[in-house]
Amino acid sequence: MLSEITVNLETNSYQIAIAPQLINNIGSYLQSLPIGNKIIVVSNTMIFDHYGESLIKAIEKANFSVSYKILPDGERHKTLLSVQKIYDQALENYLERSSTLIALGGGVIGDMTGFAAATWLRGINVIQIPTSLLAMVDAAIGGKTGVNHPQGKNLIGAFHQPKLVLIDPEVLKTLPHREFRAGMAEVIKYGVIWSDDLFQQLESAQRLDQLDYLSSDLLQNILTQSCQAKADVVSQDEKEGGLRAILNYGHTVGHAIESLTGYRLVNHGEAVAIGMSVAGKIAVKMGYWSEQESQRQDQLILKTGLPKTVPPMLKVEDILETLKSDKKVKNGKVRFVLPQKIGAATVTDEVSPEIVKEAVKECQEST
Amino acid sequence: MLSEITVNLETNSYQIAIAPQLINNIGSYLQSLPIGNKIIVVSNTMIFDHYGESLIKAIEKANFSVSYKILPDGERHKTLLSVQKIYDQALENYLERSSTLIALGGGVIGDMTGFAAATWLRGINVIQIPTSLLAMVDAAIGGKTGVNHPQGKNLIGAFHQPKLVLIDPEVLKTLPHREFRAGMAEVIKYGVIWSDDLFQQLESAQRLDQLDYLSSDLLQNILTQSCQAKADVVSQDEKEGGLRAILNYGHTVGHAIESLTGYRLVNHGEAVAIGMSVAGKIAVKMGYWSEQESQRQDQLILKTGLPKTVPPMLKVEDILETLKSDKKVKNGKVRFVLPQKIGAATVTDEVSPEIVKEAVKECQEST
C-alpha cells in the first residue's frame, strides 16, 4: 500500500510518499535525491523517543552523515530563538548548501525546520516527515514555513518547498486523540472545498472521532486524497497568488478565535472546525451554498468529535476587529473562502461585517 | 543622464535606474509598480539625516502612506535582533502582503531590510536605494539578503529580489573616502571578470582614490557598467547555481581575511582587493592568466588606493582553515574564481592548498 503524489512546480517539483514503514525505508528515497552527504534531523523529545532511533539508523544505513537536534515542543516555542538553535547545529556540523534538514515531528517542528532550511546559507534542502495528522495533510506540503511573532502566528516565514514529504501512517498510533481530531478538521476541509468523493467517504464511515475506528484502507485513502487535494492546489498556485487562498477555508474566523483565546482554549484544528461552521453559515446567507450541504458539513464535524460552536465568552466585535489584522487582509478588506457546493469553493471580499456578526452569533447560540 | 538596466528573471524582473536626483523623483517609479499603498523606509541615523526627509516627502507626494524605522549602523548590528525591529514596525503599521519596505542605506541596511521583506508574511515587496558605492554596484542588486550569525557573516538569509533599485549618484558625496574606495574594489572586480571595457576606462582615469577626481560622466559609466555586469550575471543564474559564483572573485580569501581580523582591520572592499590580488597570483600559477594582466589588475588596485597585501600578522595555515568553513565550500572542496583574461573568469575547485599558500605568502611579502 504505497501512494505517491507529485507536487508539480515550475522548478521544485517533489514527491509525497505515503505508506506504512516508510521511516525505516527512507534510505532508497534519500539515495534517489540530488542532496549532499550531510543531514540533521530536527525533532522534539517525545517524537524522537518514539521514532528517532529507527530514522537515524535508516539514514546511516544509506551512508549519509547524520546528526540531530531536539527542540522543545509546543506552539509557544515556534520562535526565532528555537530556529537559532537549528542554525547553531548547522554551523557546528559545517552544513553546506547541498546539505539537508529533516523535520521529524508535527507542524511546529516542520515549520521551524523549514524556515531554518529556507534561511540557512540562503536555502538548503529540507525533507518533511510529519508525525501528526494535521502536519501530514497540511503543514508538511506546500512550502509554507515560519515562526510566530510575539503578536501573531506565522508572521515571520518564507516559502521553501521540501525535496520530499514522507508520510508513515503508523506513527499516528502515538498521536493523542484530540490531535487526531484536529487533523481531521483539515481533512473535512478538503472534502468541502475540493473533493466530493473524500467528503462522501467520510460520511460513510461509522465513526471518525478516534484513529482506532478507521480501517487502514480508509486511513490510507484519507491521507492520499487530502495530500492530493493540497498538491493540486499548490501545484496551480505555489505562492498563494490566487487559488491557494481556498485552503484557508475555515481559517479566517478560526485564526481569530485562536488568537483571542490565547491559543490555549481550542487547538488549530478545533478552531478551523468552528471557522468552517461559521463560514458555512455565511455562505448560506450570501446565497453561495445550500442550507442542506452546510448541515451535512456540520454533521461531519460533530461525528469527528470536533466543536462547531464559537466559545461563548468571545465578543463578536472583538472577532471582527481581529479579522482586520489577519495577514490575508488585502486593501483592508477581509477575504472569506466560501463553499459553493461540496467539493468546490470560492474566495470573496464582499462579506459585510453584519453578515459575519449574524453567522458568529448563530454559532455561539447553537450547541 | 539616466541609465535603466533590466535584471531579467523568470518571474521577478526589475529595473535598476541610475541618475542624479532620483531620490526626489521616486514618485513616478512607485506609481508604475504593482505595489500597495503602505511603505516603510528603513535607514540609519546618518543617512536618514541626509536624505530621509526628501525621500519621505517624495513618497508622500505620490500619495503613498509612509513611515520609517531607523536602525543602528554597522556590520555588528546586522543581526536577527535588528530585523526584529523592522518586524515590529511592520506589525505596528499593519503591513499587508502588497506593502513595501524601502532600504535607504548601505549594504547593512539593504541586507537587513531585504531579509525582513523576504520573511515578513512570507515575503513582501522591497525597493533598494543604496547609498554606498559598494551597495550600488553589488549588494542592492541580485536579491541576496541576510544577517550575520555570531560565528559567520551572512549565514542567515534568503533570496528575495527587489521590485526596483534606485541609484542616485549624488548621495555618494557624503560617503567617506575609504568607503568609496571599498566600493571601487567591486568595480575593479567587474572589470576583471566581466568587462574589458570597464577595466580600460578605469585604467584611463587619472586618479581613482577619491570621488572628487571622477567626472560625473565617468561615475555614471562606472555605475552603469558595474550594474549591467551584475544584472547580466544574475539574469543568467538567479540562485547561484553556476555562473553567479564568478561574482565571488576575490571574496574567497577576502572573507577569510575579514573573518580572521574580526571585521575590524580591513573593510569588505579592502579584503576583496587583497583577495583579488591573491586570486590573480593563483590564476597565474595555475596557468589560467598571464602575469602581465595580473599586474595590470594590481596596478589598478594600487591606483584606487586599495591594499593588495595580506596583513602580515595572519598565519597562512589559519587562512586555509578558514577557507574550509566558507559557505561556498562544496563537498569539502574550496572553490576559487580565477581570471582567464581581463573580462572573463572561471570557477575551479582544483586549486591545491600548496598553491594557495604560495600565493598568500607572496602577497604578504610584497608591499
Automatic annotation (TrEMBL), chains A, B:
<keyword id="KW-0479">Metal-binding</keyword>
<dbReference type="GO" id="GO:0005737">
    <property type="term" value="C:cytoplasm"/>
</dbReference>
<comment type="function">
    <text>Catalyzes the conversion of 3-deoxy-D-arabino-heptulosonate 7-phosphate (DAHP) to dehydroquinate (DHQ).</text>
</comment>
<feature type="binding site">
    <location>
        <position position="186"/>
    </location>
    <ligand>
        <name>Zn(2+)</name>
    </ligand>
</feature>
<dbReference type="InterPro" id="IPR016037">
    <property type="entry name" value="DHQ_synth_AroB"/>
</dbReference>
<dbReference type="InterPro" id="IPR030960">
    <property type="entry name" value="DHQS/DOIS_N"/>
</dbReference>
<dbReference type="GO" id="GO:0009073">
    <property type="term" value="P:aromatic amino acid family biosynthetic process"/>
</dbReference>
<comment type="similarity">
    <text>Belongs to the sugar phosphate cyclases superfamily. Dehydroquinate synthase family.</text>
</comment>
<keyword id="KW-0057">Aromatic amino acid biosynthesis</keyword>
<feature type="binding site">
    <location>
        <begin position="107"/>
        <end position="111"/>
    </location>
    <ligand>
        <name>NAD(+)</name>
    </ligand>
</feature>
<feature type="binding site">
    <location>
        <begin position="73"/>
        <end position="78"/>
    </location>
    <ligand>
        <name>NAD(+)</name>
    </ligand>
</feature>
<dbReference type="GO" id="GO:0046872">
    <property type="term" value="F:metal ion binding"/>
</dbReference>
<feature type="binding site">
    <location>
        <position position="144"/>
    </location>
    <ligand>
        <name>NAD(+)</name>
    </ligand>
</feature>
<feature type="domain" description="3-dehydroquinate synthase C-terminal">
    <location>
        <begin position="183"/>
        <end position="329"/>
    </location>
</feature>
<feature type="binding site">
    <location>
        <begin position="131"/>
        <end position="132"/>
    </location>
    <ligand>
        <name>NAD(+)</name>
    </ligand>
</feature>
<feature type="binding site">
    <location>
        <position position="268"/>
    </location>
    <ligand>
        <name>Zn(2+)</name>
    </ligand>
</feature>
<dbReference type="Pfam" id="PF24621">
    <property type="entry name" value="DHQS_C"/>
</dbReference>
<keyword id="KW-0862">Zinc</keyword>
<protein>
    <recommendedName>
        <fullName>3-dehydroquinate synthase</fullName>
        <ecNumber>4.2.3.4</ecNumber>
    </recommendedName>
</protein>
<keyword id="KW-0028">Amino-acid biosynthesis</keyword>
<keyword id="KW-0547">Nucleotide-binding</keyword>
<dbReference type="GO" id="GO:0008652">
    <property type="term" value="P:amino acid biosynthetic process"/>
</dbReference>
<dbReference type="InterPro" id="IPR050071">
    <property type="entry name" value="Dehydroquinate_synthase"/>
</dbReference>
<keyword id="KW-0963">Cytoplasm</keyword>
<keyword id="KW-0520">NAD</keyword>
<dbReference type="GO" id="GO:0003856">
    <property type="term" value="F:3-dehydroquinate synthase activity"/>
</dbReference>
<dbReference type="InterPro" id="IPR030963">
    <property type="entry name" value="DHQ_synth_fam"/>
</dbReference>
<comment type="pathway">
    <text>Metabolic intermediate biosynthesis; chorismate biosynthesis; chorismate from D-erythrose 4-phosphate and phosphoenolpyruvate: step 2/7.</text>
</comment>
<keyword id="KW-0456">Lyase</keyword>
<keyword id="KW-0170">Cobalt</keyword>
<dbReference type="Pfam" id="PF01761">
    <property type="entry name" value="DHQ_synthase"/>
</dbReference>
<feature type="domain" description="3-dehydroquinate synthase N-terminal">
    <location>
        <begin position="70"/>
        <end position="181"/>
    </location>
</feature>
<dbReference type="GO" id="GO:0009423">
    <property type="term" value="P:chorismate biosynthetic process"/>
</dbReference>
<dbReference type="GO" id="GO:0000166">
    <property type="term" value="F:nucleotide binding"/>
</dbReference>
<feature type="binding site">
    <location>
        <position position="251"/>
    </location>
    <ligand>
        <name>Zn(2+)</name>
    </ligand>
</feature>
<feature type="binding site">
    <location>
        <position position="153"/>
    </location>
    <ligand>
        <name>NAD(+)</name>
    </ligand>
</feature>
<dbReference type="InterPro" id="IPR056179">
    <property type="entry name" value="DHQS_C"/>
</dbReference>
